[in-house]
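quick q for whoever's on today - can somebody do inverse folding on this one?? i tried earlier but teh output was garbage lol. tokens:
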């Protein structure tokens, strides 16, 4: 079967590999549509090192079940499915406490284990979700990044009528904006790229790029700042600009040290916390329901679709950071 293998930083090859062997508790899936995530871009650009080369990348997918393991009872051949691509171990103290999202032993499809950018791939049935015809392929393939954004919003405690700020209007930030606006939350968006700001505006965010954001957010009653860009300067911007008594939720994956003044946090009783992926299985179930009921439509952030054979071009475009969600189609 054909698979997209990351051979080295900046180099993807579509090669023939042996189809995966199906475990008794797994399903074999033929992808229909694939999404390129920021983690795929980070691996492609060499900003993040895989366990080893070559690596079959990819984790955002909608497809059809083509085989099931002998112990799989809730899924059948021909069903249209999406995959929750992070697999906690289920036995550590974090998993026992219902916090599998921070399980130190979790496996991540296309990051720590072979991914889904192939004609076929296998996934544990526990993490495979059937989707109804009410959800289009474009909405289905973007369910996983939407779940990331919804988890951040839900665990923040933000309520209807609150005002928040979102720094970084990539996929995570844009989907967080859409979700927040749909739940009656007022949103201010901030990004250095006008193309991303325009997408945020269309999703219902308020924009005031020229303002002193520290003063603006204070005057407008911002209670929570979501940092979604994953860069040290934007982390510092969030920490320095959050209004008195507010909170900062770090969703982006900044990997270098950021500076802040502890005294400011104490005197202003500020809070800062991280948000990583989602809770299994509750968050995915809720996310699917919201899209099925037409409350949310994550496909609105999609701007480009490429044939699978043009994955190099798709990754190059995604790596510019100037576009929305980039998809790959396995059809045709």
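ok took a stab at it. sequence:
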């Amino acid at each position: 079967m054909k698979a997209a293998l990351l051979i080295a930083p900046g180099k993807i090859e579509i090669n023939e590999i042996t189809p995966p062997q199906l475990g008794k508790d797994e399903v074999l899936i033929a992808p229909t549509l694939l999404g390129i995530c920021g983690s795929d871009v980070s691996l492609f650009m060499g900003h993040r090192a895989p366990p080893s080369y070559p690596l079959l990348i990819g984790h955002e997918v909608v497809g059809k079940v083509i085989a099931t393991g002998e112990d799989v009872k809730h899924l059948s051949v021909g069903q249209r499915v999406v995959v929750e691509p992070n697999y906690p171990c289920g036995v550590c103290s974090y998993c026992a406490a219902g916090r599998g999202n921070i399980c130190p032993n979790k496996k991540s499809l296309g990051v720590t284990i072979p991914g889904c950018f192939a004609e076929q791939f296998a996934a544990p049935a526990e993490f495979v979700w059937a989707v109804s015809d009410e959800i289009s392929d474009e909405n289905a393939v973007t369910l996983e990044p939407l779940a990331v954004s919804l988890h951040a919003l839900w665990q923040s405690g933000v309520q209807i009528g609150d005002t928040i700020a979102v720094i970084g209007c990539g996929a995570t930030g844009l989907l967080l904006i859409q979700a927040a606006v749909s739940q009656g939350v007022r949103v201010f968006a901030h990004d250095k790229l006008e193309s991303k700001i325009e997408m945020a505006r269309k999703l219902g965010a308020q924009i005031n790029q020229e303002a002193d954001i520290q003063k603006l957010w204070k005057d407008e009653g911002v209670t929570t700042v979501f940092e979604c860009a994953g860069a040290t300067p934007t982390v510092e911007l969030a920490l320095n600009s959050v209004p008195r008594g507010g909170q900062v939720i770090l969703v982006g994956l900044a990997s270098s040290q950021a500076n802040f003044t502890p005294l400011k946090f104490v005197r202003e009783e500020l809070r800062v916390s991280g948000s990583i992926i989602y809770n299994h299985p509750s968050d995915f179930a809720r996310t699917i329901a919201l899209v099925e009921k037409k409350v949310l439509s994550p496909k609105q952030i999609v701007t480009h679709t490429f044939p699978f054979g043009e994955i190099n071009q798709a990754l190059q475009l995604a790596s510019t950071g100037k576009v929305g969600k980039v998809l790959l189609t396995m059809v045709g």
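fwiw The mean pLDDT is 96. also Residues 302 and 325 are 4 Å apart (CA to CA). so keep that in mind when u check it
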